[in-house]
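Give me the fold.
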Amino acid sequence: MSVSVLILTLNEEANLPSCLESVSWCDDVVVLDSVSKDRTQDIARSNGARVVERPFDDWSTHQNWAVENIDFKHRWVYYCDADEIVPPELADEIMAVTSDTSRREVCYRLRFKNMLFGQWIKRSSMYPTWVARLWKVDKIRWQRGTNPIALVDGPEGRLKHHFLHYSFSKGMGPWFEKHNKYSQYEAVETVKELSRGKIDWSGLLRGDAYRQRFALKNLSFRLPCRPLFKFFFLYLLRGGFLEGRAGLTYCVLQAIYEEMIVAKVNEIRRRESGLST
C-alpha cells in the first residue's frame, strides 16, 4: 500500500458509508470533519477511519491545513468528498501509479461522472473537468476560497478512470443549502476578479482544459444576463437538452446558482459603496 485517503465531511451520515466502502482497499483513511452534528464521526470510526476535527472556513484554507497538519501514513494522498465513489478500476489505477517509483509525476488529475436521477449528466455538467485528486502531500497547495486552484510543485499526470459524484444524493433541499453557502464564496471571489480587471485571453484561447475553464469563468463574471447565458450555454450549446429531464433540471439549477452569485456580488458592491441592499 502506498496511498492514504482524505475525506472531507460535514453531516454526511447518509453518504459516508458508501464512500468508505469504496475506499476499503486503503489502510489509512482520514476523515477531516467540520464538526458534524449527526453520526458522521461515529460511522467513520466504526469503519476504521481516523477522524480529525476542524471547523470549516473556506476550501483552500481547509485543504492547506490538512496537508500541513495531518500525519498521513503515506506520502501519496487521494482526496475525495463523502458524496463520491471510487470504482474498483480507479482504485486499481491509483495503487498502480503510486507504487511505480519510476514515475516523475507528483500529482494526478481525474475526471468525474456527475450523477442526477440515476444517470450520468455528461453534456450539461461540462465534462470533462480535470480535478487534482491524487498528489504527494508535500507537493501541493491551494488558493481560492471555493473551487480552489491547485498549485503543484512538479509534473502532473492524468488518470484514465473516473470517480462518481452524487452531488444530489441528499435531495434538492440540502443541495440548495450547500450552494447558498458556495455562492457567497463565489461572490467574494468574483468581486476580487472584477477588481483586478484582467481576462486571461491566452488561457481562454490556447490554454489547457483546466486553465480554459477558469478563464471562461473569469470572462463570465463580466457578461450581462449571466444566469440566462449559463442556462443556454449548458442546455443548447453543450447539449443538455439531449439528457432529458435530468439535463433540464441540472441546467436550471446551474442558472439559479449563477443568479445567487450575481445577487450577492451586487450586495457586496453596494455595501462597499455605502449603499443599502
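The mean pLDDT is 90.
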